[in-house]
Every structure is written in C-alpha cells, then in structure tokens.
Design brief:
Elements lengths: L5 E10 L2 E11 L4 E5 L6 H9 L6 E6 L5 E4 L10 H6 L5 H10 L13 H14 L4 E5 L7 H13 L3 E5 L3 H7 L2 E6 L2 E5 L6 H31 L10 H20 L17 E12 L2 E12 L3 E5 L6 H8 L7 E6 L5 E4 L12 H5 L6 E4 L2 E4 H7 L4 H4 L8 H14 L4 E5 L7 H13 L3 E5 L3 H7 L2 E5 L5 E5 L2 H7 L10 E2 L2 E2 L24 H28 L4 H4 L1 H37 L2
Parallel strand pairs: 3-7, 3-8, 5-6, 6-7, 12-18, 12-19, 14-17, 17-18
Antiparallel strand pairs: 1-2, 1-4, 8-9, 10-11, 10-13, 15-16, 19-20, 21-22
Helix pairs in contact: 3-4, 7-8, 17-19
C-alpha cells in the first residue's frame, strides 16, 4: 500500500467539558475514495476541518506530504467575489479551468456571485474545488441542495479526478457509487472498513452485535465484583487492592459506555381522520412565469395512500407544482380539486418558519407555555424535544445555534406533532444523518395517509415512492409508476431532450397520470356518458360532499366520554351508523372514480 498523502494520528480534541475525539487515526492514500460516516453531532465536520488544517487538535499529529494541495468544500460554503468566475479562480485555478468546471455544473461564469440559491452556491463551491486540481478533496455534504443531474455530474467528476477524496454525506446512492472505503466516527474514535459504502450497514451490524456481547460480559463481571466488594473489602489484606482497582476500572468503563450511548430517537406520526379516497384531482393544469413555462396541460389524480415523489433539475418548478397541487398558488389554466377532510403537514425546504433568534422551545410551542399537543395528547415541550435528541440545554438556545441536521429535526418534530392525513415533505433529507433518515423512512413506510415528497435523494425516493412525477424545466411533466430508477427506465432522455419533443410522445400531451401519451389515434366517433351515468355522477358528487359532515357529526357524538355509561344503546347505534357512513362514502368514491375514468376514456376517444 502506498504511503498516505494526508493522515491523522492519535488526535484528541475537547469541546468544552466534552471530549469530541479521543485517539483518532485516519489516513488517505493517493487516489483513495472514502466515506466518513457518523451521527449528527459526532464531529464529522470538525474532523474535516482538522484534516484541512483549519482547526488545530488539542493533541496528536496531522501529517501531510510536502507539496500536497488540499481543497475543502464546507457544508455551508461562502461565495465571494463579483462573479462566479472570480470565486472559482480565487484558489489559484486557471480561468479556463474554472470556467469549464462552472459550465459543467450548468453555471454561467459571468453570473453575479450574489443572490444565489442553495443549489447554485453548492455547485459554485464544487466547481472551484475541482478546478484547482487538488491532491486531496474534502467534501462535507456535497449533495445538499443539488438536483439529481448535478449529483451525477459530481459523480463523474470524482471518478475522473486524480485526488484522494473524503466525503461526508447522507446520500446512500451517491456514496455507493463513488467510495471504496469507509471511516466510521463513533464514540470519539474512527474505525475503518476497506470496502465501499454498499458494505457499510452489514459491517456496522456485525460490530454492534460484538459490542453488545462485550457489554453483557462486562455487566456480568461488574455484578460479580460488586457483590465481592459488598462483602467487606476493607477487612481484607492488601493483596485484594488489585481486585478492587479492577472493579473501579470496570465501573469507569461502563460509565463511559453509557455516556457515549446516544438516546434512541422517537419519531411517529398520527394520521388524522380519514381523508376522502380522492386527495387531489388535477385536469389540464398550466403555469408559467413570464416567458418561462413551468408545466403545460398536466393532469393527474392522487388517491388516498399514494406516495408521490416529485423530481427534476433545480429551478424546474417542483415546489411550484406542489403549491399548485395544494391550492396555495393559482394556475394559469386548468382545474385543481382537493379532496374532503384533508389535514396537511408541510415541511418547507427553505425552513422559512424558523427564525434565527427564535428559541427552540418557542419553535415547538409558539403559543407559549411548557406544554405542546402531540398527536392529540398534551406533552411537556422538553420531553418531546428529547424524543428528537435535543438536550435540556438546547431547549432555551436560539435556532441559529443549531446545525443544519438539528434544524431539520426541529422541523420534523413540529410537523409530526400534529395529526395529518396528507404529508408534504420538500427536501426533508438535507443534513440528516443516516440513522435519522432510516427512522424517517420507516415512519413514512408505516404512515397510513398520503405522501408528496420532493427529493433529490435517489435511494430515499426508490424506497418510498409508488409514483414519480418528473419535471424537466421546459413545461413537460411526466408521471410513471415506481421510484427514480423506474422513472429513468421508462423515460430515457427525458431530462436531456429538446423542448420540441419528449420521449414517447409530442410536447404537452399527457396521460391520466401525467405520462407523455402516444400519438393520437385517428379520429373516432364521438362518445360520452349516457344520460343515466351522467346523472349518477352528479349524485355522487353531491353525496361525497355531504358525507364528511355527517361522519363528523357522528364522531362528535361518540366523543362524549359519558355516552356509553349514560345510554349504551345510543352508543351502539351511533357506532354502527358511523361505520355505515364511512362504508357508504368509500363506495361512493370508488363508483365516482370508475365513472370519471370511463368519461375520460370516452372523451379521449373522440
């Protein structure tokens, strides 16, 4: 094996009274590709700063081969200079190399370096680092705010680079594609796996199982030695002092293990009252801003229990589409019909509701006091915050003191406190560690409501989505069953084709679920619903509008805690009526859907 170009040996660093690193060893050999994995708060970004030479450790050694050039892309990069090219050349890159790197990420080198979006800021920082042709490339959450196409551009750049690369990222698909080695930062030390990230989870499970066995053996030995001590060590001869010292050491070891064990995060969501079978109905939707077309003639139907992913390049209009679907933004043309009994929880990627000077407790309990309603039951705000791994000290700290991952956890805590049957998550995975991501994925998999997910995390989309809507930024919108990989296989070239033509059909033609339709068949004889069917459709529309009110009335009567003891027969009667009403609404919605699909099919055949 070649000697490392950059290495840490026995590094120690304290953060106040808390030891952050205690004997960390880490080495990067030439052209190695490694992931640095760890929980939020474990110190990954601090360790990257030590490797970059920006933070000095309390003890230990940082060794770097003479002449080695290190480029470091921070988790929250700062862009300076008048233009993007000014920033990209500030580290010594040749202007033509910097311009080429910027253009590879779809950026204009002459663009002003102010007013940039999160995705643009990230791409500028990456372009600068790559243009410098470093020997070591340190990337802290490089995929945050990047769209999937930019992530694939970054993957190609890393593959072509001669640099040793160390990456902190929560993006599993990205790490599986680019890494050959893993460093795991846990309990103030770093352990190494000489395989790519695809093998990481299985390796961690083996280590965790072995450590659990060791912990059980330690507890057993501690129990035995504590019993011996209780029998009166003071009356024994000095030769037993060695045994007493070993007991004290075992106690210290257990105390250290308990201190390092992070509490288990608790994440749950209560589904609000059942929504209607039809959650959102969209017909012929179009929207543009000036001359820029966001979408044209888009139609879709979102049903209860669907998990819809929205994907596409930055700026294509994903958030705009979500706001159109929720009725928060008016369309230029077309119709959006929201279903009945909807309770919406919305997490905004901009974190606009979090103000820097807001205290964490006030963010969770904006009306004041120490209590918060969590899924219908009162709970102390500090106890609820602990479920999302916030400490007592953080409860009264301002939001600006939180890391990116902690802010995202705070948004999740706020959103999940309220029952919802429609959850809308706009880039929920940014800055979250993998443990939190896994828990979020597990919670969403069990969620009984409807989910609309905007995300660039391919693995997250593939694991959750039942249907994926893609926007290419030129007014074309395609929806296909499945996740990201399904979308790519069914729509090859969709994001890269000319505006005049999209895969599988002509521009602007969409099928029922938004997919590009095949060329129209030869004109057929006009057809429509029969008079009887049309009348039935109108009856069903009225019935579906009326039934939620009746259901709510019955639910209110059954909510009386004294009803059963006062009038058991009425309690039974109301319960049966409620079940019948729900079944009637369900049947009406299913019949309405069948008639609507028949009507659309007949109109399409005209």
């Amino acid at each position: 094996m070649k000697p490392p170009v950059l290495a840490l040996k026995n590094v120690r660093l304290a953060d106040g009274p808390r030891m952050l690193f205690d004997g960390v060893d880490l080495a990067l050999e030439p052209r190695s590709r490694a992931a640095l994995v760890g929980r939020n708060g474990a110190g990954k970004s601090t360790l990257m700063r030590i490797l970059a030479g920006l933070t000095e450790a309390d003890d230990g050694e940082r060794a770097v081969t003479p002449g080695t050039r290190v480029a470091y892309v921070l988790q929250e990069p700062l862009i300076e200079g008048e233009t993007l090219l000014d920033h990209a050349t500030a580290g010594g890159a040749a202007p033509h190399e910097a311009a080429a790197a910027l253009e590879s990420f779809g950026l204009d080198p002459s663009k002003a370096a102010t007013g940039l979006s999160g995705g643009e800021t990230r791409r500028v920082a990456l372009a600068r680092a790559l243009a410098e042709d470093p020997d070591v490339l340190l990337l802290d959450e490089p995929t945050n705010h990047l769209d999937i196409l930019a992530i694939e551009t970054l993957e190609g750049a890393i593959a072509a680079s001669r640099a040793s690369v160390l990456i902190v990222s929560h993006d599993r698909a990205f790490l599986e594609r680019v890494t050959q080695r893993c460093f795991w930062l846990e309990n103030r030390k770093v352990r190494k796996l000489d395989r790519g990230f695809a093998a990481f989870d299985a390796w961690v499970e083996q280590l965790t199982a072995a450590e659990a066995d060791e912990a059980r053996r330690l507890d057993k030995a501690l129990e035995r030695e504590t019993h011996w001590l209780a029998r009166g060590v003071t009356g024994r001869r000095a030769r037993n002092e060695g045994r007493r010292r070993r007991l004290m050491e075992m106690r210290a070891t257990k105390a250290e293990r308990l201190r390092d064990t992070r509490g288990a995060m608790s994440m749950g969501v209560a589904t609000a009252g059942t929504s209607g079978q039809r959650v959102v109905e969209v017909k012929g939707l179009s929207k543009k801003f000036g001359d820029r077309v966001i979408l044209e003639d888009f139609s879709t139907r979102i049903l209860r229990g669907d998990r819809i992913a929205v994907v596409g390049p930055n700026g294509a209009g994903k958030t705009t589409l979500v706001k159109l679907l929720l009725g928060e933004l008016p369309a230029d043309s077309g119709q959006v019909t929201l279903g009945t009994n909807l309770e919406v929880a919305y997490i905004d990627q901009a974190r606009a509701d979090l103000k820097d000077d807001m205290l964490l407790k006030d963010a969770l309990a904006p009306l004041g006091g120490d209590q918060i309603m969590v899924r219908g039951a009162p709970k102390h705000v500090a106890a609820y915050a602990k479920e999302f791994l916030f400490t007592d000290a953080q409860i009264r700290q301002p939001v600006r003191s939180l890391s990116g991952g902690e802010r995202n956890r705070l948004l999740l805590a706020r959103a999940l406190a309220q029952p919802a049957n429609l959850m809308v998550l706009d880039e929920p995975t940014n800055d979250l560690d993998m443990e939190t991501l896994d828990l979020l994925e597990e919670m969403l998999s069990d969620y009984e409501g409807t989910l609309i997910l905007v995300s660039h995390d391919r693995d997250f989309v593939d694991r959750l989505a039942t249907s994926t809507i893609g926007l290419n930024g030129r007014g074309q919108v395609v929806e296909t069953p499945g996740g990201w990989l399904d979308f790519l296989s069914q729509n090859p070239g969709f994001f890269g084709v000319s505006p005049a033509k999209a895969p599988g059909g002509r521009r602007g033609e969409t099928s029922q679920r938004g997919a590009v339709a095949p060329a129209a068949p030869a004109p057929a004889k006009a057809a429509k619903l029969s008079y009887k069917e049309q009348r039935r459709l109108e009856e069903l529309n009225s019935l579906i509008a009326e039934m939620p009110g009746k259901i709510a009335l019955l639910e209110g009567q059954l909510a009386d805690p004294e009803l059963y003891s006062r009038d058991p027969a009425a309690f039974d009667r109301y319960g049966k009526a409620l079940a019948a009403a729900r079944e009637k609404l369900e049947a009406a919605e299913m019949e309405w859907l069948e008639l609507e699909e028949r009507r659309e099919a007949l109109e399409a055949g005209r």
